[in-house]
Amino acid sequence: MQTVTLEFRTADLELLGLVPSGFFEKYEEVELLETLRLERGWRLQLLRLRRRGSLRRASDLERESRRIRRAYGLQSFELVELRPRTRDYVLLVRQRNTPMLRRLLALAGGHVNPTAPFLLTPERVVASFHGEEPSLRRVLSKLQHEGLPFEVVRSSPRPSLRPREAPSLTPRQQHLLVRAWTLGYYAVPRKITLTRLARLVGVSPPAAGKLLRRAEGHLVAQFLAATVPSRPFAS
Hints:
Arc Repressor Mutant, subunit A; single chain
């Protein structure tokens, strides 16, 4: 598995329709926080948007949702959090993929996924992808064939945890913990309910609760084993 970070000029991506024209007249930057679903025709992502000027109220966004969806090619969007101090929205966005993006996803064959860092600004886009090396090579070759200029900023295997640090979690537990953390399930106050979290990851609320409790139990046990003295407490 390989992770590659690319840098593009934002203007080039606008010409191809990958970035909406005029988007950065209202926004300073966009950060991809998490990709929850990535299909050929659409994607479901958690985004942080930094607005120019003061933030709109949640009620304003809801009232103008139809215009916003039409302007940016969105199937739906949901406000997760307002951050007035930094002028950021955190949004859950379901968006149609452009024809070019659909072609790239077909080449990737489900073996390439966006990852951090992934940041869009008015001048440049830093985009990172993690996946199988042959699939990444096919995608990069397609970008070159399409005449899209880019620079490879970094390319390296993603470092794995040392065996003694590896959490004893199943892939499903790891997947759900990442989603729960990213969507604010562990925030204070909580940003997402268990029912909504379960719906987003495609399991029932009881199943999600059981997976989280078991994962949390493993992590607590590991923490206690690493920090609590092995000798019994004195009575």
